Amino acid sequence: MVKSINDTTTLNNGVKMPWLGLGVFRVENGPEVVNAVKEAIVQGYRSIDGAAIYGNEETMGKGIAEGIKAAGISREDLFITSKLWNADQGYESGLKAYEESLKKLGLDYLDLYLIHWPVKGKYKEAWKALETIYKEGRVKAIGVSNFQIHHLEDLLKDSEIAPTVNQVEYHPRLTQKPLQKFCKEKGIQLEAWSPLMVGKLFDNEVLKEIADAHNKSIAQIILRWDLQNEVVTIPKSTNKGRIKENSEIFDFELSKEELEKIDSLNQDLRVGPDPDNFDF
């Protein structure tokens, strides 16, 4: 059971990944990113999740540097993720994009590098690039994002190295049970993006009732549900109070009945694009 912000899951290659992290999607490049990242690190977060397409890797890097200094920790204490964008999916272009991300972030290596979306006809070449970077010891772990079961099956057919992580949209309205089961069987860690469904669940009566019973916020209930389902979670916030609140999920536990109640909210409803039907 996940008991503290320092707890980690061990990926299929032995690398340890924190259960809770901060996401920086849709956080404007500038002081907002710097402050959010620094604040999270000072408050005990050790995982920061970004991507090339977010357009804020430079300021994310600055926030990491300031956070390391302010918290008195080392780079090795952190788990930093970035993602290969669709336009750069290919072998040479994938290698180049990785170097570009490192340069922008001001880092020597990443802990996790993901293929951002399963672009048809491109993700296998991209995966070869990630395998090369991994084999050369320049990244601690490689994985994918937004891959459905059939994408994973296709990738696993020809890959030398299995993905360590699959980061997908995951929240009480999109529980992705078959995908989670498949990933578990294959030793791939599921990770949730948009775990709070961009605030669309904050007036849900079922969640409100459970939150009241534990004297917690609905956000805290959802994040705890993630962890008890063995899903890594990376809520986005730039608000100091909410960054703190999102990390205060280790002093209570949801009952089996409560977990089932939350599971029953599933409607296979997405707030983001459909991985089987996107055009970017």
TrEMBL record:
Site positions for Lowers pKa of active site Tyr, renumbered to this chain?
Answer: K83
Q: Does the keyword rRNA processing apply?
A: no
Looking at the record, the residues that make up the NADP-dependent oxidoreductase domain are 20-266
Q: Which residues form the signal peptide?
A: none
Residues holding substrate = H116
The active-site annotation reads Y54
Which residue spans adopt a coiled-coil conformation according to this UniProt entry?
Answer: none
Q: Which family does it belong to?
A: Belongs to the aldo/keto reductase family.
Protein name in UniProt = Aldo/keto reductase family oxidoreductase
Q: What species is this protein from? A: Clostridium pasteurianum DSM 525 = ATCC 6013
